[in-house]
Amino acid sequence: MAQFLFEADLHGLLKLDTPIPNAPPARWQRKAKESGPGPSPVGVSPMKPANRSHSSSKTPSKTPGKSGSKIQSTPTKAGGDRYIPNRSTMQMEMANFLLTKENDPAEESPTKKEQQKAWAVNLNGFDVEEAKILRLSGKPQNAPEGYQNNLKVLYSQKITPGSSRKNSRYIPSMPDRILDAPEIRNDYYLNLIDWSSQNFLAVALDNSVYLWNHTSGEIIQLLQMEHPDVYVSSVSWIKEGNYLAVGTSVAEVQLWDIQQQKRLRNMTSHCARVGTLSWNSYILSSGARTGHIHHHDVRVAEHHVATLAGHTQEVCGLKWSLDGRYLASGGNDNLVNVWPCTQGGGGDFAPVQTFTQHQGAVKAVAWCPWQMNVLATGGGTSDRHIRIWNVCSGACLSTVDAHSQVCSILWSTNYKEFISGHGFAQNQLVIWKYPTMTKVAELQGHTARILNLSMSPDGTTVASAAADETLRLWRCFEMDPIKKREKEKANSAKSSIIHQSIR
Fold it and tell me: Are 235 and 245 in contact (CB under 8 A)?
């Protein structure tokens, strides 16, 4: 029996030397080849049958078949034993270093960070690091403004697609009130309404000026020109709201006291109609049809203190910045000039900036209330564009095609928005988001072109005067009640400005 097992084992060993197609070599075969020249791999079998015939072995061999002995047999298939890898050639320290480095929050160089941010912005449209929602630590960051998730509908809990729209404040599409404005002059170059800080709306109707008290609804006729051919061409309130400047078609600039309802002064320095007015403390600036701008110091008898000659045609837009540093003027010559503040003393003055990109008359000029160096301008029928400027650098920050004549622009003091009034063909008001220049809402109702816009002192209501002889009041910038109370407290805490006496 032992002889039979031995022959069977030897037979199996011989079979292992026979090459088997498509069979991987066993581990002992590979080791034999790596060890170089030597005895045949037959004598190195894992079963070690050669030790059984040598008595010189330190451990006496056991006779196969005896009780208690385990009989081993040659594997019937090559490669049956498990593979034990040799890790002597592996760089374990290097692998450990690389794995540790990936988890190590080591700071990258600023140049590499900027490159990664630029790649992310070019590929995704936003910085991935700033738009992460899930983070290991800290609070989740909000997605950048304007980002829209393409799979937003899939994560919506509501069924209707309309529920995925972003909630925004309610803007009434109809005016809050409509007032008659008979015989208002349909002239693009005139500025015929203005709203005071004391809540009086001044309206010029042909040769008369009316005051409408928004609080009580009372209407007062302030003045009427003595000659029927003379008409009022512009009105403008002083900041405190107790004096009204009136420009006429016969080149006069009148000053009226509202409390006493009497004329204080009649200043004559122009030689053509005065189509636009703007106050800067006690300095009243007036723009005329000749293209000249005059500064009037209303405190002194010799009121004409400076002349600005930067336009070749009628000045139809004029506005001082809120900090009083710059005066912006727009004219029928398609130019926008930005003038520095002058403290009197005659002489020649040059604009610090001149913008020539508009292709039509520029009547709409408005300063941003929270960025003092940002100016918005709008062009007439030949241009139809709204442009945003940085008057310090002279750069055009944004441009948008309004597709219609731009007559007036007002910045909101309650939101990062502005509103524009337009002529042909829609005769509408448009609210724009800043700085994205996207439309927030369109307000329609006028049947003729809008001539002027004016803002209420609380910044919630816009008055629009149009050639359809109506005044419409739009409550388009209504504030949240909580924010409104906070703003009222802040305004009441401010100290009152000392009023300059006018002689």
Answer: yes
- From residue 91, how far is each of 20, 87, 94, 96, 196 by CA, in Å? 35, 9, 5, 9, 82
First to last CA, the chain: 141
pLDDT at position 288? 97
Residue tagged 């005329």 (tokens): 288
Pairing of strands 462-466, 470-474: antiparallel
C-beta separation of 394 from 422 below 8 A: no
User: Structure tokens of 36?
Assistant: 């170089």
Compute CA distances 126 → 123, 147, 436, whole Å.
Answer: 8, 8, 15
Count of CB atoms situated within 10 Å of the CB of 405: 25
191 DSSP 8-state letter: B
| C-beta separation of 370 from 390 below 8 A | no
Domains of the chain (ranges plus CATH)? 177-493 (2.130.10.10)
State pLDDT tens for residues 393-439: 999 999 999 999 999 999 999 999 999 999 988 899 999 999 999 99
The dihedral through the CA atoms of 156, 158, 162, 167 has a sign that is: negative
Cis bond before residue 425 (omega within 30° of 0) = yes
Burial pattern 440-462, b for ≥16 Cβ within 10 A else e, equals: bbebebbeebbbbbbbbbbbbbb
- Per-residue pLDDT tens over the stretch 173-197: 999 999 999 999 999 999 999 999 9
CA distance 276 to 233: 8
